[in-house]
Amino acid sequence: MAPHTTGAPLRIGVLGCADIAWRHTLPAMGRVPEVRLTAVASRDPAKAERFTARFGGAAVQGYEALVDRPDVDAVYVALPTGLHHTWARRALTAGKHVLVEKPLATGLAEAEDLVATAAGHGRWIMDGFMFLHHSQHAAVRRLLDDGAIGEPRLFSSAFGIPPRDPGDVRYRPELGGGALLDVGVYTVRAAQLFLGEELTVAGSVLRRDTGRGIDLGGNALLLSAAGVPAELSFSFQSAYRSTYAIWGSEGRISLQRAYTPPADLRPTLRITRQSGTEERSLPADDQFANLVRAFAHAVRDAAGFAAHGTTLLRHMALVEEIRNRARWAAA
């Protein structure tokens, strides 16, 4: 794995003008001195110009033109899921490191190809699970390690959002739409974070929108190597919810806004035991800036890609198994 050794900021080009890039990721890049935005590409020149007018860099028409720029060290793929494999692979073969919006790909075969391509070209690829880089989860881990709730007996998580505009890209099956690949993947990754990566799928249900050919939500039951279950729920048809909880032999830890806390929010962690409930206010943290910084440091240090690649693949394998084993119900 070839490190970025110049000492200068990592020069990043952006593929796509997605809402998450406008609201979160590109502002975060401006807060991280280890990176510099070089260019933004869109198939619509006006969109690229709107982004660069706010964030800087050059506006580029077409993704190919950006990938081939010599002043781009790394590419942020902010495209619909169904386009992740094509353009992440193209960037890797052009010698660029890649930060790709979650999930890495639509399925395991695509993910395996991307990890192999990155390794073969000595480049780093990372998926954009920003929540992993918020300090609130380390606080939960410390409590678990200290035995605050005894032995874990159950992990549960839910992530749901209200219905979107009917034309939203999340509803287009040819672009990797559906609730599992959009919000469900967060709950799977969180279960791996606390129960270990080698989970298995005991069963799953997906709710089918037959008209559009996607899932609008679902549930999955996973099991850890130690036999601890994880109950996961995800939805495009619900009131907003973003939470997880760990139920132990001596208490329960729960966290709200688990996946999408704003940078200025002080999260509240709740610990419930037989003796009562305690609430702890945790420090605010900037998970998007932390993600960008972690990517820059991974590229610079160029260490541990084999283990990192295994993590990416185990996650996609679980997501694919949830989809393949699902019983389908009417939405």
From TrEMBL:
Span of domain Gfo/Idh/MocA-like oxidoreductase N-terminal: 10-126
UniProt keywords, alphabetically: Oxidoreductase
SUPFAM superfamilies in UniProt: Glyceraldehyde-3-phosphate dehydrogenase-like, C-terminal domain (SSF55347), NAD(P)-binding Rossmann-fold domains (SSF51735)
Transmembrane segments: none
UniProt entry tagged with the keyword Cell membrane: no
UniProt-listed InterPro entries: Gfo/Idh/MocA-like_OxRdtase_N (IPR000683), Gfo/Idh/MocA_domain (IPR050984), GFO_IDH_MocA-like_dom (IPR055170), NAD(P)-bd_dom_sf (IPR036291)
GO molecular function: nucleotide binding; oxidoreductase activity
Pfam families xrefs: GFO_IDH_MocA, GFO_IDH_MocA_C3
Residue span, GFO/IDH/MocA-like oxidoreductase domain: 138-253
Family the UniProt entry places it in: Belongs to the Gfo/Idh/MocA family.
Alphabetical list of PANTHER family matching this protein: OXIDOREDUCTASES (PTHR22604), TRANS-1,2-DIHYDROBENZENE-1,2-DIOL DEHYDROGENASE (PTHR22604:SF105)
Protein name: Oxidoreductase
Organism expressing this protein natively: Streptomyces sulfonofaciens
